[in-house]
Amino acid sequence: FEVALHCTRAGNVFTTHTPVDAAFDRYPAPMLLHYGRPFAEGIGMSHEKLLALGRRDPDNRDEPFNMAWLALRGSGMINGVSSLHGRVSRSIFQPLFPRWPEREVPVSHVTNGVHMPSWDSAASDELWTRTCGKKRWLGGLETMERELATLSDEELWAFRCRNRRNLIEFVRKRLARQQAIMGLEEKGIKPLDSAVLDPDALTIGFARRFTSYKRPNLLLHDPERLAAILSDKVRPVQLILAGKAHPRDHEGREMIRQWILFSQRPDVRGQVVFLQDYDMEIAANLVQGMDLWINTPRRPWEASGTSGMKVLVNGGLNLSELDGWWAEAWCAEAGWALGDRQEHDHDPAWDAHEAEQLYRLLEEEVITAFYLRDEHGTPHQWVARMWASMARLTPRFSSNRMVREYTESMYLPLVRAYRDRVRDRGALGREIEQWRRELDRHWQHLRFGEIAVRKLENGIGFGVPVYLDDLDPEMVRIELYAEPARLGGEPERIILHRAERLAGSANAYIYKAQVTTTRPATDYTPRIIPHHPRAMVPLEDNHILWAS
After folding, report:
1. What does the DSSP assignment read for 142-195?
2. Rounded distance between C-alpha atoms, residue 47 and residue 38, angstroms
3. Does 241 reside within a domain?
4. How many helices (DSSP H) and strands (DSSP E) are in the chain?
5. What is residue 535's three-state secondary structure?
6. Each residue's pLDDT tens digit, 122-175
7. Does 303 lie in the same domain as 273?
8. Residue 375 within a domain
9. How many domains is the chain partitioned into structurally?
10. Which domain holds residue 469?
11. Has this prediction a pTM greater than 0.85?
């Protein structure tokens, strides 16, 4: 089984989509054995080995079987769905790689993208076709920014207004049907007028699952301040919302109730619309017509998020928490950001701070940019952001880029690795398993001697004695490791080379390296890690030994 696992692992990619460990499926050992016993017995595998594949500690009989642990151990590459989510996932999977630095946990990322032709409006398709061609999503995306630069501000603004007006027309029809189904008149409640909403007003909103970590009621933190924004007659703003909560998510359902009650206030009635029975038709129309898409998840709980990506192709802008995809997409020229790139957990004071930031951005920047017009009625500041968002972000967060990135960085390398491992009836898989068993047999006997450090003219010289028991020196690598010297930098990994045998000791050597650096020698720690030119370390062997 172990050889087969080494061979097949090389052809598997595990993409994790959750930023919380609690979301991984776990099963009690008896349940797992009930369904897994025939498989295990069919290949001659013990029950203990089967359960070990899904446990952090194979010897802990009380630990449930974790499906994510199984997926990681059976895959050749693991990735999150945004840069931030990759970092969060490395933290989640750290327990499977004890004593390895978190940044070296073998989890990368490929940021999600959306299929733009599925979400663009007729007006959007027409504009993109005119500038970038009908086959724009079939090849490279490198020329899109240059091609969109040929559009005038007036063309872009007319296109945005057309999308918004189509949305208002859709919402009016949907709302009329919604009110008829609810039987408002029979209940003595006056329905909203058929001409509800202004096709020329700044239209903001969102559509999503209502649940606590998405904080869909952050905008409701100060209802009076929100009402003042929405009831401004000079610079009108209107809010369109849609979404559902899980039937058992009472908090999510309560958030929906709060929004519906707010929408019925006399001072904002007709300025706030909550569309019920959220479906794909509503989602498509909202992302096509919204001027500003608001997203307020609690960082880092939004692994990626894709709703905001769908407004890009339609000329909508984003105002979002720096979480998920927006943490790497945001730039001041193309939208607005909430937060400070830090995690604050469930902190009511921070929620209040971000609500204040949200209101201030709307009052001082968003609304101002939308209504600051020239003599022809064109808001050039707003259109400049539209162009930057469309030209720079749409290609980058399209499924075209995503699929190409998966293909080039994961699928093709793993196809080659899989073919190598199954060739000659799994010869390479057997070689890797034999290498791993040798490491298991000798690792506890490996040790360092007294390290020699000498100051050089432009750096430091290291001499590191290493005692390898009876292990082949080619099966390990001796390195110096130093944490990044600056925030956001990369760690230093310097390979030490086997220089000479240690007199009087069998299979012991001095490993040497000269480091050109201004850092102190104490920043560098020698370590021993597994090494095989065709194995994936630490994924296939997580041994590591640090000099004390």
Report:
1. TTHHHHHTTS-HHHHHHHHHHHHHHHHHHHHHHHHHHHHHHTTTTTT-PPPPTT
2. 10
3. yes
4. 19, 20
5. coil
6. 999 999 999 999 999 998 899 999 999 999 999 999 999 999 999 999 999 999
7. yes
8. yes
9. 3
10. 446-546
11. yes
